Structure prediction request, 228 residues.
Amino acid sequence: MERQQPFWQIIVKTIPVMMGYIVLGIAFGLVMNQFGFNLLWAVFMSVFIYAGSLQFVLAGLLAQGSPLMTIAITTLAVNSRHIFYGLSFIETFKRMGHRRPYLMFSLTDETYALFCSLPPDQKDPYTMGTIAVMNQLYWITGTLIGSVLGEVIPFELQGVDFAMTALFTVIVVDQLRFSSNKSPAVIGAMSSVIFLLLLGPDKFLLPALSVSVVALSLIPSRFLNRST
Prediction:
């Protein structure tokens, strides 16, 4: 497939993620250092696990020597939302050729948000592959910087994990500004608030996602701007 747009135009789309991922990657590198893991461990996790908030959780579990089953269950619970991300891109990824395995692996929250914001004619292997690779490179770069800084400078990290939530919020708000149909956002917001009140912050995510997916599936397509 021919390239849909120049490389620099694709990079511009990733700038919000770059600004967040480098900062968060630095925080992760610092956390790993505080738990006693060296640079190689931190970079290894960012290259082969690349799971954002889960990496912060895994750092603590590994430092505590948690059993493998505990780590597996925690990983499933924290990252189960990605099941819904993948389902919404099944047909798109079928057209990605040899890039498909990597796109499946690298589908983080922020990368998913960028993919959803792409017009249909820009959902090509080159554009989506470039976005995915650049986003992971930002994260790895931040991890590397944080690991090096952690060796020489003491840091207070309390509350830094909220930066990832703030980054995703910024991306969603920016996407809504250019969307002509706000129905998916309204449904998702209402489901989240209802289940947050009913179940609390630790248990609301999966039910809210499930109800949102069902609701969006039942709404006739003419009322939604399907981007995937």
Remarks:
- Residues 179-228 form one domain.
- The mean pLDDT is 82.
